[in-house]
Design goal:
- It is a single chain.
- By secondary structure, this protein is α/β, with parallel strands linked by helices.
- It has 10 helices and 7 strands.
- The protein has 3 domains: 2-49, no CATH class; 55-69 and 128-255, Rossmann fold, CATH 3.40.50; 70-124, Deoxyribonucleotidase, domain 2 (Ribonucleotide Reductase Protein R1, domain 1).
- The chain has helices at residues 2-14, 24-32, 37-44, 46-52, 70-81, 98-105, 107-118, 132-140, 160-171, 238-250, and strands at residues 57-61, 145-151, 180-182, 193-196, 213-217, 229-231, 254-255.
- The chain has a 7-stranded parallel beta sheet, with helices on one face.
- Helix 3 (37-44) crosses helix 4 (46-52) and helix 6 (98-105) runs antiparallel to helix 7.
- The two termini are 28 Å apart.
């Protein structure tokens, strides 16, 4: 027990100021794993845990607002097409659906937003969020980790569906197009974790979603959500991503 506690304390001290692992409950949970197979792997070293675990992990990753910088491009297009209309800076967005917040300013702005989103080329032109593409490739290379893109098309789907596939092929490669799950109800999709910017995931199975735990990817409109599962950005370093995956394997809460 002393050896295990010492390892946990040393591990916590090594985290940077932007630590992935902050709560006292996680510290206790780490110690309680003494005597379990998972604890044996952890006690050897963090790197050994990362590469020797036999636990299979299925991670679902949303596109808009998680892989693609939806908000920045929407604002850019809105200001270009409607330069005389009031606009909302990304930092002041407070509803998941942009058309709702714009519609509260002026009714006709709601239609302007939906027209932009459904126009040809919009989804294909979204820029990747910083480090998202690199992290997707890193996760794909981790043994026993299965990564899928899980995204919902907009109601006016004519351009959206095909352009999401185009985006994936352009930025991640053709093989990733085979790992796209497109659906309106994500609660029906089986997984262990869903990384998504939506504050609450609604659907037929919303009280016990098949996707497992919801990791909230931080955007201005979800900052008021209280959760033990939050990812504020994609890490720049591979070792930070491996730490993130290690915590998912252990089922420990985290907020970066």
């Amino acid at each position: 027990m002393r050896r295990m506690r010492t390892w946990c304390e040393r591990f916590l001290r090594k985290r940077s100021s932007r630590a992935w692992f902050l709560t006292e409950s996680n510290r206790i949970a780490c110690v309680k794993r003494m005597g379990l197979e998972a604890a044996g792997a952890m006690s050897r070293s963090p790197s050994a845990k990362r590469h020797t675990s036999s636990v299979s992990l299925k991670i679902l990753v949303d596109m808009d607002g998680v892989l693609c910088d939806f908000e920045a491009y929407l604002l850019e297009q809105f200001r270009s097409k409607f330069p005389d209309e009031p606009f909302i800076p990304v930092s002041e967005r407070n509803t998941f659906y942009a058309h709702e917040q714009y519609g509260s300013i002026k009714v006709e702005l709601k239609r302007n937003i939906t027209d932009i989103m459904s126009s040809p080329g919009f989804f294909a032109s979204l820029r990747p969020i910083s480090n998202a593409v690199t992290c997707m490739h890193w996760m794909r290379d981790i043994p026993d980790v299965s990564v899928w893109i899980c995204t919902s098309p907009i109601n006016k789907y004519r351009n959206c569906v095909s352009e999401k596939y185009q985006w994936v092929e352009k930025h991640l490669g053709f093989e990733w197009t085979k790992r796209v799950i497109m659906c309106k109800d994500k609660t029906l999709i089986k997984g262990d974790y869903l990384i998504d910017d939506r504050p609450m995931i609604h659907g037929e199975e919303q009280f016990k979603p098949n996707f497992g735990k919801h990791v909230v990817f931080t955007q201005p409109y979800n900052c008021n959500v209280t959760t033990e599962w939050r990812l504020s950005l994609w890490p720049e370093r591979k070792d930070k991503l491996l730490d993130f995956i290690m915590f998912l394997r252990e089922g420990l809460a985290f907020r970066d």
